[in-house]
Specification:
The chain has 153 residues and is mainly α. The protein has one domain. It is built from eight helices and four strands, in the order αββαααββαααα.
Length: 153
Amino acid sequence: MNEKLDSIRSEFYSIGVFGGQERFVKYDLNAFAEMERMYGSMEAANEALTKGSMNDVRRILWLGLIHDQAILDEVTGEPIKYKLPLYEVGSWLTPSNMKSVMEKLNKAISGAIPDDAAATTPAGVTPAQALALAKAEEEDKATDKVIPFTNPN
């Protein structure tokens, strides 16, 4: 198993009171996988967040909030929808709280990546990219397995 993937932190970070309750974001492997699915790659997700479009900020925030909002398929166990609409999350963001929420999001995303990963990650690589690299390493190792040939005779 890949040590970087094994040590992904799944900590909760408060972003404030929205919709009448304190909200916590959590960027676990499921959130990063959903992010990758939405954007096509972790690099594209990072670029979108760096550009700071309102749509992308709303999506990244939503991805951190869906950890306990999934409605799962009874057969596959995969999410079929989420109880928290993207539009509702967008209604919580205003010009007066945007900077504070963005700072908390960056802290939460960075906090999901192990401290030692930062030390071994090349300069200029974001936490999301570091996670994608760790995932790619794990997939490479899985495909490099050698299966011994046994002669059936």
